[in-house]
Amino acid sequence: MIALQTARLTLTPCTPEDRADFIALERDPEVMRFLNGGYAVDREKVDPNATFLMPNGTEPHVWTARRTTDGVFIGWFCLWPETETVAELGYRLRRAGWGQGLATEGACALIQWGFEKAGYDKVIATTMAVNHGSRRVMEKIGMHHTRTEHAEWPDPIPGSEQGEVWYELLRTDRASG
């Protein structure tokens, strides 16, 4: 992994020094709204069945995003390999970075790296159907909705009844788009 530069962001491989910033994201109810219903994560008591990524700064596929101009922490992005040719895109940003196109900017840079340098042929991403902001990012970067899945959860969060949406982008889509 290498550092990636966009117009406004610097994405670097995460390090243990980023852990405090990652934990601060997990403590923000709005950031966690579509992951666990908005509960601040207590890493000492975290549900062992949590299905969302809680990086510690040692994960090989997570990049820390900082504003290029001042080094302020914006969030993190990941491109997690599912197979040799498929990776899953993920991201989590501080509220102060929402609505500015930073998620789109960072995700585009990471996907470009994934296709050009890591050799992926397909990038997938998922979110709750009601997470319109994340869905908008996926669509802006050229991903296509492929399916919606409905699951029974023992402790459902608001909006989960509308399902989880799956998006994908193929390398060939990117080349032609």
TrEMBL record:
Highest rank taxon of the organism: Bacteria
Domain N-acetyltransferase, chain residue ranges per copy: 9-172
Protein name: GNAT family N-acetyltransferase
PANTHER family: GNAT FAMILY, PUTATIVE (AFU_ORTHOLOGUE AFUA_3G00765)-RELATED-RELATED, N-ACETYLTRANSFERASE DOMAIN-CONTAINING PROTEIN
InterPro entries to which the protein is assigned, alphabetical: Acyl_CoA_acyltransferase, GNAT_dom, N-acetyltransferase
SUPFAM superfamilies referenced in this protein's UniProt entry, alphabetically: Acyl-CoA N-acyltransferases (Nat)
Pfam families with a match to the protein in the record: Acetyltransf_3 (PF13302)
